[in-house]
Amino acid sequence: MTILLTIIIFLEIIQYIVFADVILSWLTVFWLKLRPKFLAYIIDPLYENIKKIIPTTIWPIDFTPIVVILILAFVRWILFLLFPELKIEVIQLLN
Prior knowledge:
Blueprint: H1 2-25, H2 37-53, E1 57-58, E2 61-62, H3 64-82, H4 84-94
Antiparallel strand pairs: 1-2
Helix pairs in contact: 1-2, 1-3, 2-3, 3-4
């Protein structure tokens, strides 16, 4: 059960990293290019694998972060369906 809990925590961390990458990408509107290398090392391979499977760019808009977040949510949902006691553990951990 601790392995599944670790996977859930890992998925949450990846989701927060994707959110941070999206917010930092909005700074290019103000002519600021701020993207730490550790963020690029984590996110770029994930984005590239998604782009190989699904075309996620429509004109200048890249929908890859949305697809990644949806996949992470789907994996979390499947884990909670397969292991209902995991959801109870996560709720207890958060309280």
